Structures are given as C-alpha cells and as structure tokens.
Description:
The complex is a heterodimer of chains A (179) and B (231).
Chain A: H1 3-14, H2 18-40, H3 43-67, H4 71-89, H5 119-129, H6 132-144, H7 148-155, H8 159-177
Chain B: H1 9-20, H2 25-37, H3 39-53, H4 66-77, H5 85-96, H6 101-111, E1 122-128, E2 135-141, E3 146-153, E4 160-168, E5 174-178, E6 185-189, E7 201-209, E8 222-227, E9 229-230
Antiparallel strand pairs in B: 1-2, 1-9, 2-3, 3-6, 4-5, 4-7, 7-8
Helix pairs in contact in B: 1-3, 2-3
Amino acid sequence: MTRQEIETLIGSVALGDRKAFNSLYDATSAKLLGVCLRILRDRAAAEDAMQDTFIKVWKNADRFAVNGYSPMTWLITIARNTSIDRLRASKPTADIDDYTDTIAASGPTAEGRIIATGEARRITNCFAELEPTRSAAIKAAYLDGLPYAELAQKFNVPLNTMRTWLRRGLIALRECLSK
Amino acid sequence: MSNPSDMTPDDTEFAGEYVLRVLPEDAHRAAAARAASDPTFAAEIRIWEDRLASLTDEIMPVTPSSIAKTDLMEQLFGVDPRPSFMERVSFWKGLTVALSAAAIASTLIIFGPTEPVLNGPVYVTELADDTDSLRILAVYDADTQGVQITRTAGAAVDGRSLELWFIGEGQEAQSMGILSEDEANETLALPAVWLDGVDSWSLAITDEPFGGSPTGKATGPILAASQMTRL
Lengths: 179, 231
C-alpha cells in the first residue's frame, strides 16, 4: 500500500469510517506489531500495545491531517511510544540523580558520500557511516526503547559517555542527511 | 517562548533525545513542555521522528493473532464481525445439554475423582467435538482446586497442542494450560479464586500451536466447550 493510500485511509478514519479503519488495520498492523514486539519482547504485551495503538489512531485520526507527518512515521511513532510507556510502567524508573546535563561538543563531520536517493536509503547509508558504537546506541534507544541509564549499562560505559556518544551520533546523522 | 534564532545545535540534539526517549523523566517532561510552546522545537521533533522511523525498516512484520483484531473492534465498536468466543461457547453448550444428568453421573462413577470423600462442591461435564472424535470428561473438585481430565477419545494434531480454558460467565477465557500429549488422565489446577463470584462457568478446548497459545488468549478453533454442572 502506498503512502498516498494510507493517508487516504487515515483521512477516512478521521471521519469515522469503520471500513477504512479495518483496511488500515489490515495494511499496517503486522508492521506495528513488529515494532511493539521489538520493544516489549513479549507477544501478548506487544499485541495489547498494538491494539492500544489502533485505539489511539481511531480517536486521534483527525489530528493527523494537520501535523504534517508521513503516515507511517505517525503510526510507528504512536506504536513505539505506546510500547515504551508500557515497558516503563512495569519497571522502576531510572534514578534521576544519576543524570547530569553534559553538553556534547560539536560532532565530527561524517565521512563518505551518500549515493542512494530515497530518504530511507539515505538514512541507512548515513547510519552505516556512523561509528559503530554510536549507531548501535541510537538503534538500541530507538528500536529497543532503552533510556540513557540502561544504554550505559548495556554498553558498559558511564552515563555521560553514553550521552556524548548518542548526541554525537545524532549530530553526525543530521549532518550526513543534510548533505 | 523561543523563536527560530534561538535554536542551537544543542537544541536540535535535545529534540532528537526527546524523540529517542532516552532522557530521564524530568528532562523528558521539560522537552514536552517546550514542544508545546515552541513551534520551532516541535518541528525539530517531527523531523527527528521522520528520520528515525526509517530505522524500523529492519523490523520484520509480525501478523497479529486473529483474536487481536476481534478484541480491538469489540473494544472500539462493541460489535464483533465474527461470532464471539462466548457465543460459540453457547452453541456448544446447547449441544452438550443433550448429555443427561444421569449420563454425567454414571461417567463420574466410572472415572470419578480419586478422593472418595467429597466435601467442597464438585462440578462435572463432558467436552466433546461434533463428531465425538474428541471426548473429555472433566471433574472439578473444590477441595483439590484442580480439574481432573479423563480423555476417552482424541489427541492433538501432530505439532499442535490442545489447550484447556476456564470461562467464567461474562468473563474472558483464562488458560488452564495444555493437555498432556501422552497421558489420558491428568489434573490441571483451577485456583478457587477464579470461581469467586462466578455463578456459572464453562470449560473449552482449543487447537493451539505446539506448546499453547503464544498470546495468552485462544488463537485456534474451539474444538469443544461445555458448561460445568454442579453435582
């Protein structure tokens, strides 16, 4: 299903069209369940989060038209945030005192050249250009839903080092994408 | 409130951190508050959401169980496009009413509970599919908090499992576990609290992937279901 078709479906859902909602579910639920499952790592919890995602989509579809998102970004963002909310609700929150606000120095200029055309290919290529630890940290944060405290544990570095890695990774990524 | 000239590279990365949700809760809330009052910062957030969503390209889609969709539609619209679990149970209930109390009582004598002295309530039913290729006698004894299963016919298809479900009236089915592949006689636990405030209840058998439903909810067809009769 094309971006345009999904946009049209969300537009119809905003008007209360249940048939369009049904089609939207059929077209996107497997992808969104994949996203939820990656974060929650439990099939039943992921299906619940995926259902909650669609409940939010049904109730907020009218807000999609004005926010300028690409439709899949909008759906994935809702699914991801819903899953992270669930994940963190079941865990004690990180100790806030562990956190100090360090400001990353300007990142290094990304190396290499972008050859691909599409945005997805571009981001894939830009990711490949990042230092492996930085791309791994960004992926663990985005795809697995880990906060700084847990990323630092996972990569076995101090919290501030993790924050520097991740922020430099983001800077390099942005610079690469704006080339 | 900030204006576009206030955006520094640091702000941009802060927006990225907000999207990644790596920040501790207080910092995350501060970023959310800023997004609400600062359109430039909000736009940065949206750009990061778009950029990072491409990372999910590496995630393989996973088809949800069919029951997830049914549940969702029920939650939203209160209607179910297909017959609900309970409706299907009622259908089976109708069929098994054909079993007379006398027949149940006699099977209880044949296969009856091992405890000779019965103090708490005892419930019994026979679960059978429409061709009688699967027949299970189920006896619940409140004293042992278990359902004694005696399978007189039928088995799971190769590579599949038979799962037993407890359904309190008006409640969702709760798994009691899968039936043993080899043992025709076994007892599955049924905690007494499940029966608290439950007037009538049923048992059901579904065909599930090997090892049982991966979702905690029935995913396969109902092979047999029947209301329990109190003796």
